[in-house]
Fold these 2 entries.
Entry 1:
Amino acid sequence: MAKNGKKANEMWGGHFSAGPAAIMEKINASIAVDKRLYSQDIAGSIAHAEMLGATGILQPKESAAIIGGLKKILQEIEAGNFPFRTEFEDIHMNIEARLKEMLGDVAGKLHTARSRNDQVATDFKLWVRDALDALDAALQDLQAALLERTGEHAATILPGFTHLQTAQPVTFGHHLLAYVEMLGRDRGRLADARARLNESPLGAAALAGTSFPIDRKATARALGFSAPMANSLDAVSDRDFALESLAMLSILATHLSRFAEEIVLWCSDGFRFITLSDAFTTGSSIMPQKRNPDAAELVRAKAGRTHGALVQLLTVMKGLPLAYSKDMQEDKEPVFAAFDAMQLSVAAMAGMVRDMRVNAEKMLAASLRGYATATDLADWLVRELGLPFRQAHHVTGKIVAAAEKKNCRLDELKLADMQKVEKRITADALAVLSVENSVKSRTSFGGSAPANVKKSVVTARKKYL
Ligand code: ARG
């Protein structure tokens, strides 16, 4: 018994005579966070116990008893009957302590040829792998939602912007396909991270490997890893899989925040390109007319948390000497937070994409403002009159100025008004000023023409769904 009346932790055994200070227990415990690893921890322990039995390191009946106990613990946790205890610090020791309560001393044999260092690395990798798989499915569903709406809006015209200033007319389907492509790259990064992650740390033990005749290939196989990690020091020190996932999530968060910002803009009075239903908006307690796109705003904000998580873990890991240091216990919170934020955000975006009503007439009206077909006129001057593009640009600029002066659209100008600027312009030029003809003409590979969009939907469906 210690001065503070607490018994030494049984897991450290003989060398300790006193329990930790209350504040030590508080700073040291991670159970509140890492209990989320319970199913991975039990899967890892079962694989380890099976291997200990198969290699003769444990007797078959010892290994069987341990596996039976672990399965019961899994049921207890899933039924909500498991007593998570701070004095046992983390998920690994909570489960082992419970196993000891159930089985007595044989439970202590589970930790043969293993350490919490390889155990936690294994658990965490398994968790991240599951989270990547769940996120990939959600991303695929968001792509599916976008492709549904793309098919409906292959020919719906809206202004394309640069600098948020009207640039050229594009199609709404083409705009949505831009996000399908971005998410495709996110899924590519996810797949890369998953493939690189998929080697097993289990059996590295504390840092140096073990003198027991373990079979690391067997445990790797049992847990769905492609191979054991080659170096025991690296295996327990590596958190690249978490960092790489956070980097992937951070880029995704940036993509989603851009899309969310467009949804916020499109819902605003200045645009009204789309309307979200009651299902994805909130009202105001004071202004009865309000319909706020809160879900989109929150997705936009989740980038803060996600980018923060990446910087948080990079900062924890930088400068750590090999092999394990307790600093690394701080790895889980940012990873859980970022995956939670992105899983939720992707689902919310899919919900909004399916929910939004597209106000095609507002989009069209906006595309008729802002001289969106000026480039088409300049291109006509190049094509038909052989003007160098720079000169055509200059001529068109003067024609835009004439329209501005008359306060009319380009296609409302009289031919004579244009001929005052360039006398060789013919009535043929008027055709290129319509936004419909403008988008139809954008048939270059990857361009916005409705015909392209229809083809791209088919290609994207094959590639991503
Ligand atoms: N809870 C610890 C973590 O998450 C487990 C590993 C502890 N290892 C140790 N040698 N103290 O990192």
Entry 2:
Amino acid sequence: MSENKKITIAIDGHSSCGKSTVAKDLAKELSYSYIDTGAMYRAVTLFGLRNGLIENGKVDEQKLVNQLPNIIIRFQYNAEEKKNETFLNGERVEDEIRELTVSNNVSPVATIREVREAMVKLQQEMGREKGIVMDGRDIGTVVFPDAELKLFMTASDQVRAQRRFDELSGKGSDATFEEVIQNIRERDHIDSTRKESPLRQADDAVVLDNSNLTPDEQLTWVIEKVNKILEQIQ
Ligand code: DC
């Protein structure tokens, strides 16, 4: 593998289909940075919830947009945990943004054009040097349309819900499987039908359905694709 040629890897797909697992493994293997763009929309949502700008599932869009300059999101590498952690206005919010209240409110926030524009701008800055793996819904279509490798990931909703349920249960959450699958279906629907940058497969993306693949198997599959691209651009 070439030491100096770095590429951009864009990973898009449905909620909870293991995008972040592939992205993290890939970043580690290639010594690239990993950016979880969902965490950014989640952090904006957390800000909205904490400041009374989202109530009963209703987002006060104008007030949230006005607050965008006061929502500072950054990632910091935690060497002990070996992962990037999300910070909102200087506070580590890595756990808070994964809670079900945030999951239940993030989709409408991610439909707001001004929120998307601000996040996309930040994401493009973070990826300017290449050598990055970024996952989300619009990375291959909007953020990095010229990415050398675009993956479009999917898995059945039952498989995805079970994975998310296990993850939440492991963290002590009392969310039921029914609630989790409901949330996933709702988010799929909003993410795919929204007007602003809906989730869609880029024409030049490769599809990875990992319903029946282990993390190791999918990593091997993706590394093969990366190596082919790196060979071609030498
Ligand atoms: O990947 P995730 O579940 O953490 O994403 C949280 C929400 O943010 C999800 O409803 C879709 C939205 N999102 C988006 O619209 N665009 C992105 N690039 C990443 C996430």
